[in-house]
Design a protein that fits this description.
The chain is α/β, with parallel strands linked by helices and 418 residues long. The chain contains 15 helices and 13 strands. Helix 8 packs parallel to helix 9, helix 8 packs across helix 13 and helix 11 packs across helix 14.
Length: 418
């Protein structure tokens, strides 16, 4: 059960979720997706994955999800709040119908509020279906900071689930503070393939870079050549891109540098204004959305990948930082903020560098430090590649999820309920 799933061929929404379900099915799990409709419809099959779409409003109004997160949508246009009760009713009914088929497990992503849908499915199955809830941190910070009356509901979602997972150690700690449960830490991976797997490559899924043969090693240019800095992600406040822009003049005092920003979002005007104020407009390129082959090329051409994440005004930050895994698998040295789940991926000075959030000076220092010692930076990049492909491989993630499913089924049926 998810908030959003690709609506048509080529839709860029949640590619990692598509990969997760596709690979689960390849392992022999009979997995289907329950997702809300978008404007009355949406794809009923994505890459061979059956998708059930539930309706919750007239077609023209079914835009609460997919285009942006529900909290952002409601916060920007309070009129959308009127759709929330309809969304909940539609999801509960869809969950009840799905539960009538008595699935072994219902896996709820973003339990706020989808645990209601999972509970409906479990009830409809006569208590046979096990419920797994996966937390991604945003729902925890959003409720605890802005909607505290809903904290008891969030606590209930953790306590009544038959198994709980969290995408990072920091998220798991937040769940433990909420309820007396022990989540399994199961991260998610990048949408790109793991490269070393057997079988032909799928289009758009080639693993960028194995060794340096045939590609540009990071930081291989001389000191007179511009450093190629790269950011990839949604342009929202918690990504902190404006702090990276403000670091650029300090970097350029020592060495030429150019920044490429890939992504779209409402924070784009803030980023452009920061570049104008810092006097680096001509050195910052905002590409908007790019396709997968172009993105892989940008990764291969970059000297450094930077994720300058911050804690935003809603208290939200990076639950994990999947783009770091993509960059590390491409063999790029990474620099990121020490916030949220990022330290689960980046070990400081081993597989990348961690800096305090919202500090352009620290970002500039880390960038220049890597540039001054390219050999050490390439060694860090190689360790990052190893860590991303081994410790955050799809096999490891799917092993963790299957263990959660088995534990949930045992907990559900071990007390005599069938």
């Amino acid at each position: 059960m998810v908030t959003a799933f690709p609506r048509w061929p080529g839709d860029v929404i949640t590619p990692w979720m598509v990969e997760l379900v596709r690979r689960s099915r390849e392992r022999g799990l009979d997995a289907e997706v329950l997702a809300p409709a978008y404007r009355g419809g949406g794809a009923r099959e994505v890459e061979g994955i059956p998708v059930r779409r539930f309706r919750y409003a007239p077609a023209a109004w079914e835009t609460l999800t997919h285009d942006e997160t529900v909290p952002d949508r409601v916060g920007r246009s309070p009129a959308y709040a009127a759709l929330v009760p309809l969304y909940l009713a539609g999801g509960v009914l869809a969950g009840w119908r799905a539960g009538g088929e008595r699935p072994d497990v219902v896996h709820v992503h973003w339990p706020m509020p989808h645990a209601l849908f999972g509970a409906a499915a479990r009830a409809a199955s006569g208590g046979r279906t096990a419920l797994v809830c996966s937390f991604y941190s945003v729902e925890l910070t959003w409720v605890s900071r802005r909607l505290r009356p809903l904290v008891p509901f969030l606590r209930w979602t953790a306590r009544t689930a038959d198994a709980v997972t969290a995408i990072s150690r920091s998220t798991a700690a937040m769940v433990r503070e909420l309820a007396d449960v022990e989540p399994r830490v199961v991260p998610f991976a990048a949408a790109a393939g793991d490269g070393g797997e057997a079988g032909p490559e799928r289009e758009g899924e080639r693993e960028p870079g194995h060794g340096w043969g045939g590609e540009r090693p990071p930081l291989s240019g001389g000191p007179e050549e511009p450093l190629r800095l790269l950011f990839v992600g949604r342009l929202v406040e918690r990504k902190g891109v404006e702090h990276l822009v403000r670091a650029l003049p300090r970097v350029r005092r020592e060495r030429p540098a150019e920044l490429t920003v890939v992504g779209e979002g409402e924070w784009e005007p803030v980023i452009r204004e920061a570049a104008r104020e810092a006097g680096v407009e001509v050195h910052v390129r905002l590409t908007g959305y790019v396709d997968r082959p172009t993105l892989e090329r940008l990764y291969r051409e970059a000297d450094l990948f930077v994720l300058p994440a911050v804690v935003d005004r809603k208290g939200d930050t990076e639950g994990l930082g999947v783009v770091l895994l993509e960059a590390m698998r491409a063999g790029r040295p990474v620099i990121a903020s020490r916030v949220g789940g990022i330290p689960d991926i980046v070990e400081h000075e081993r597989s990348g560098w961690l800096v305090p959030p919202a500090e352009p000076g620290a970002l500039a220092g880390a960038i220049l430090g890597a540039a001054r010692d390219p050999g050490a930076a390439r060694a860090v990049a190689e360790e990052g590649r190893r860590r991303a492909t081994e410790e955050f491989s799809w096999d490891a993630i799917l092993d963790g999820l299957e263990a959660a499913y088995e534990a949930a089924v045992t907990a559900r049926r071990g007390d005599g309920r069938r």
